[in-house]
Write a structure and sequence with these properties.
Strand content of chain A: over 45%
Order of helices and strands of chain B: EEEEEEEEEEE
Helix content of chain B: under 10%
Strand content of chain B: over 45%
Largest sheet of chain A: 7 strands, mixed
Number of strands of chain B: 11
Radius of gyration of chain A: 13 Å
Largest sheet of chain B: 6 strands, mixed
Oligomer: heterodimer
Number of helices of chain A: 0
Number of strands of chain A: 11
Order of helices and strands of chain A: EEEEEEEEEEE
Largest interface: A-B, 24 and 22 residues
Number of helices of chain B: 0
Shape of chain B: globular
Radius of gyration of chain B: 14 Å
Chain lengths: 113, 112
């Protein structure tokens, strides 16, 4: 089955620790995105990547880092510099400039205490 | 004015009712619009794309009003299973790339 997978579904960390969230897709999509969603809020763009080995900051990139070494994978690291890391993190992908219909993975719910 | 605004609701309607949501956007150059459905604690799922004046898919109709800068989503004959939060997304271009800007969503609750 083609799709986007994110793991783990739930993640718990202590304050001060870096944590990496996984996002993998087998849709052969060029572009991948990371969003953050807080309760009662819309999705806010953290980082995005249009092609391998290239990525751009979104609206709220501070305290996060990404890599795009393979087309299928776009991991997100939440660093200790992120002041309010507890949130629902969603990864999405799309074929690219020809289509902006984004398809989402199931998300990772991160809790930092 | 925020880039994309939605009435947060909740909209509480009986089964079989017709309900409409509006989404206003601030960038008059926006070309593409999307409606997503998000169930509680799940990921958004694409419901409809709107590239011209509108789109229809079964009980769902999306309409675009460029002059007033809003898109609407109409749901006819509401089902219990339509209960969800509906997110509006607008494509904005920055340089050579475009990104989706999401509204905060409108919550719909369909009651028996």
């Amino acid at each position: 089955d083609g799709g986007i997978t994110q793991s783990p579904k739930y993640l718990f960390r202590k304050e001060g620790q870096n944590v990496t969230l996984s996002c993998e897709q087998n849709l052969n999509h060029d572009a991948m995105y990371w969003y953050r969603q807080d309760p009662g809020q819309g999705l806010r763009l953290i980082y995005y990547s249009q092609i391998v080995n290239d990525f751009q900051k979104g609206d709220i990139a501070e305290g996060y880092s990404v890599s795009r070494e393979k087309k299928e994978s776009f991991p997100l690291t939440v660093t200790s510099a992120q002041k309010n890391p507890t949130a629902f993190y969603l990864c999405a992908s799309t074929t690219g400039p020809a289509s902006y219909e984004q398809y989402f993975g199931p998300g990772t719910r991160l809790t930092v205490t | 004015r925020k880039e994309v605004e939605q009435d947060p609701g909740p909209f509480n309607v009986p089964e079989g009712a017709t309900v409409a949501f509006n989404c206003t956007y601030s960038n008059s150059a926006s070309q593409s619009f999307f409606w997503y459905r998000q169930d509680c604690r799940k990921e958004p799922k694409l419901l409809m794309s709107v590239y011209s004046s509108g789109n229809e898919d079964g009980r769902f109709t999306a309409q675009l009003n460029r002059a007033s800068q809003y898109i609407s989503l109409l749901i006819r004959d509401s089902k219990l299973s339509d209960s969800a939060t509906y997110l509006c997304a607008v494509l904005n271009y920055g340089g050579s790339q475009g990104n989706l800007i999401f509204g905060k969503g409108t919550k719909l609750s369909v009651k028996p």
